[in-house]
C-alpha cells in the first residue's frame, strides 16, 4: 500500500474525481487491500446470517465513490474517510432492503418467537445505530465523525486524529463521549 502522503496517489485521486476512469481503476488497484481489510472488520460486527460479503461491500462502496463527478480528493486519508462513510451507507441500505424482505417474506410464515430472539441476540442493530448516529451528528458533528472513522472506518485513535487533523487526546475524549451517548441511546 502506498504511503499516506504519496503525491502520485493524490494526483490519481484528483484525476479520478475529474472523471478519469483509468485513474479510478489504478486507485482501486492501489487501495483495494486497505478497503477489503476495512470491510472485513465491518462485517465482523454484523449479524451471523448477514448476506453481504466484504468484497461486495468494497465494490459497492467504490462504485459510489468513483461514479460521476467525485469530490476534490485531498489525498488518501480523505479518500479512506469518505470510503468509510460510503461503506456505512451501503451497509445501512442493505439492512433496510433486508428489513423490507423480512416484513414481506414472500408468503412464507415466520415464527415470531424466532424473529424476536434473532433481533435480541444481535449486539447492535445497524438501522438503530444509523438513526442514533444521525441524532448524535446533530448534537456533535466532530464526535460523530470520530465514531464513523473508528467504527465504520476501523481506524485507530491515532489514525482518526491524523485524518481529522486533531489531537489524539481530543479524539479520545470524543470517542468516550460518543460511546457513552450511543450506549445510553441504544439501550
Summarize the structure.
Residues 1-5, 103-107 and 119-124 have low confidence and may be disordered.
3D structure, described in words:
There is one protein chain. The protein is mainly alpha-helical and 187 residues long. The protein has two domains: 1-120, no CATH class; 124-187, Arc Repressor Mutant, subunit A (Orthogonal Bundle), CATH 1.10.10. The chain is built from nine helices and no strands. It has helices spanning 7-17, 21-44, 54-66, 76-103, 112-121, 126-139, 141-152, 157-164, 168-186. Helix 2 runs antiparallel to helix 3, helix 3 (54-66) packs across helix 4 (76-103) and helix 7 packs across helix 9 (168-186). It is globular and about 45 Å long. The termini are far apart. Mean pLDDT is 77; it is low at 1-5, 103-107 and 119-124.
Secondary structure: elements and pairs:
Layout: H1 7-17, H2 21-44, H3 54-66, H4 76-103, H5 112-121, H6 126-139, H7 141-152, H8 157-164, H9 168-186
Helix pairs in contact: 1-2, 2-3, 3-4, 6-7, 6-9, 7-8, 7-9, 8-9
Question: How many distinct helices?
Answer: 9
SSE succession:
HHHHHHHHH
Structural class: mainly alpha
Q: How much beta, percentage-wise?
A: under 5%
On the 0-100 scale, what is the average pLDDT?
77
> How much helix, percentage-wise, in residues?
over 70%
Determine Rg (CA atoms, Å). Answer: 18 Å
What is the general shape? globular
Largest sheet, strands/sense/barrel: none
Assembly type of the shown chains?
single chain
Taking pLDDT < 50 over at least 5 consecutive residues as the criterion, the unreliable ranges are 1-5, 103-107, 119-124
Count of DSSP strands = 0
Q: Please tell me the total number of domains.
A: 2
Calculate the terminal CA-CA distance, rounded to whole Å. Answer: 40 Å
